[in-house]
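retry 2 of 3: previous attempt timed out while embedding coenzyme A. Reduced batch size to 1 and resubmitted. Inputs unchanged:
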Amino acid sequence: MRSMGLADVDAVLAIEQAVQPYPWTRGNFSDALSGGYRCMVDEAGGVIVSYAVLMPVLDEAELLTIGVAASRQRQGLGRTMLAAQMRWASANNMRRIFLEVRVSNLPAIAWYRKTGFIEIGARRGYYRNAQGCEDALVMACDLIDENLGRDHG
Ligand SMILES: CC(C)(COP(=O)(O)OP(=O)(O)OC[C@H]1O[C@@H](n2cnc3c(N)ncnc32)[C@H](O)[C@@H]1OP(=O)(O)O)[C@@H](O)C(=O)NCCC(=O)NCCS
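retry 2 succeeded.
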């Protein structure tokens, strides 16, 4: 696992466009990099297989996006990436990670629940979609030992 650089954006974008119904753009990734967010990639055999972008906000962090290449999903890579971001946030005195997820993204919601996130609220009409807009579920995970220990990777 290592920091993402501008040279990685093509590979990350290819995964993002394949696995996200409403993918981030190249500009979103380059803004995240220039904004100093914690952008990480994981490689297997020299090929990027997962990525995540975390935005520190005072003593919290927001997980902005996370993705695993379609052919490599459900092999623990997402959990390993998330756990690495959580450990970094904890080591940097953040006490909680939160995120917004589309209410229609049921697989991701199930996955976040499994990795220790709980629902703390909703934002009405937060995302645009083909019908107009849809709500976001707001989820959070306290960076306590119990949750940091969920990953074994
Ligand atoms: C969501 C995502 C990041 C999960 O990564 P992953 O590598 O596939 O998941 P992991 O293998 O780390 O899963 C860890 C655990 O969650 C479980 N899990 C994975 N996907 C799941 C799903 N869709 N529903 C329920 N549980 C799931 C796994 O079985 C595993 O549990 P286990 O160890 O007890 O078997 C990945 O599927 C993805 O890129 N999805 C598309 C993009 C997306 O929706 N991102 C989130 C919103 S930005």
